[in-house]
Design a protein that fits this description.
By secondary structure, the chain is of the alpha+beta class. Helices cover 31% and strands 26% of the residues. It has an eight-stranded mixed sheet with strand order 6-5-14-15-16-13-20-17. Strands 8-2-1-12-22-21 form a six-stranded mixed sheet. Strands 3-7-4 form a three-stranded antiparallel sheet. The radius of gyration is 22 Å and the shape is globular.
């Protein structure tokens, strides 16, 4: 297989487009195959941690462009059932990072990456209506990629490598690990929406409220307009006792607000009216909180997994999209070190598969929201003095351990050299 053959990227989501931009940056040709006929700005709010924002800036995406799709986060906070603070900390540059943390509209951010790919790689760099259904390794070291077109027609392309960025239902992963267990669902249901409302606390705070089994997550994904209102992203979550009895677990299923708002009756304080916030949304979507069990490797010779295809995880750590961006940059960095060949994929696998697999399980155990579990266990979620429930040192240590595991411990990140040196190209 010629080293000049393009690398195929299965999936044009956030991870796949970040791979395309990173490979283009280091001079490696690639082609993105995306299953949908037309990419559209879907979804609601997501967070981009400072480690990911750093990589986006190094990709040539500006802070002004990120400001156009979201807002820099100032605070991360957990609040108990009676509205009292459990833990809060500044975020991004407000916490001493060299880079901000952003809360963005997922669809708007996705479209920003898509525009960048088309501008830099050309209009033919993303082939839509092309779903990768599997692959077959070749004796010459390359890979045959099987594709299904929008009308069901079959096609095969040959590539030097294949990057599976095709999400939690990845066909590339299913080919690599045909005996993998089914998608894991622990019983948590999420309802998502956005509401035009006045931001709470700092004006750009991420707030987790309630308990691990019954909570709200609230944060703005836009700055305030002249009327003092912003687009507030909210996630309402309840864990059911008998998940096996639930049958209709469609992803992003549109539902009536009346279907779930009763779970949050009485969740009102002088600084926040949860029922009012939920009721102010035009539309709401239901999602199961799902992930996949870790696999022993993300690589099969010239084929590698990344993003949700590699490590679909519960969103409790707000780092799914961030990790996909880190995956993309690590892949490109390993190609700089080893060449655009399977040795680079093996080095990528060695660096990330083990640590991120542990992060999947840590998020399944509630991630940073585990503090809500501790409060619930020790006092039922209601308290007057949090220090009497969990000392400040214990709370800080808990969060510090999570940040280190997720790869955005402040001092280590600030002191780390660029993942990809400016101007670096694969020989």
């Amino acid at each position: 297989m010629s080293p000049k053959s393009p690398i195929i990227i299965a999936g044009g989501g956030i991870g796949g487009l970040a791979v395309a931009l990173s490979l283009h940056q280091i001079g490696v040709p690639c082609l993105v195959l995306e299953s949908v006929r037309e990419l559209k700005p879907l979804g609601v709010g997501i967070n981009l941690q400072p480690n990911a924002v750093r990589e986006l800036l190094d990709m040539g995406i500006s802070l002004e462009e990120l400001d156009s799709v979201g807002v820099a986060a100032k605070e991360w906070a957990l609040v108990g059932l009676n509205g009292n603070d459990i833990y809060s900390e500044p975020r991004g540059t407000y916490a001493g990072y060299n880079w901000p943390q952003y809360a963005v509209h997922r669809g708007a951010f996705h479209m920003l990456l898509y525009r960048k790919v088309l501008e830099r790689l050309g209009a033919d760099a993303v082939r839509t209506g092309a779903r990768v259904t599997g692959y077959e390794r070749q004796d010459d070291g390359g890979v045959r990629v099987f594709i299904e077109g929008p009308d069901g027609q079959s096609d095969v392309v040959t590539a030097s490598m294949l990057i599976g960025a095709d999400g939690i239902h990845s066909a590339v992963r299913a080919t690599m690990h045909p005996d993998q267990p089914p998608i894991h669902w622990g019983g948590a249901l999420m309802w998502r929406g956005t509401t035009r409302a006045k931001p709470i606390r700092t004006g750009s705070s991420f707030v987790g409220l309630g308990t691990h089994r019954h909570r709200m997550v609230i944060y703005p994904i836009s700055p305030c307009d002249d009327d003092g209102l912003a687009t507030i992203n909210w996630i309402a979550e309840v864990t059911v006792d008998n998940p096996d009895e639930q049958s209709d677990m469609a992803w992003f299923k549109q539902v009536d607000i009346s279907d779930f708002i009763h779970h949050f009756e009485g969740w009102s304080w002088d600084w926040l009216d949860v029922p009012g916030l939920i009721s102010g949304a035009d539309i709401a979507y239901q999602n199961p909180m799902i992930d996949r069990d870790p696999v022993v490797t993300w690589v099969d010779g010239p084929v590698a997994l990344m993003g949700d295809a590699a490590h679909a995880m519960y969103p409790t750590g707000s780092n799914g999209a961030s990790q996909a961006i880190i995956d993309a940059r690590s892949l490109a960095a390993k190609m700089l070190a080893h060449g655009a060949n399977p040795s680079a994929l093996a080095a990528y696998d060695e660096a990330l598969c083990g640590p991120v697999s542990k992060l999947i399980l840590r998020n399944r155990g509630a991630g940073p929201f585990g503090l809500l579990n501790l409060v619930d266990e020790r006092c039922g979620g209601e308290f007057d003095d949090i220090d009497a429930v969990i000392p400040a040192e214990e709370r800080a240590a808990f969060m510090g351990n999570y940040q280190a595991a997720a790869g955005f411990a402040r001092d280590a990140l600030n002191q780390a050299p660029p993942t990809i040196a400016p101007g670096a190209k694969v020989a």
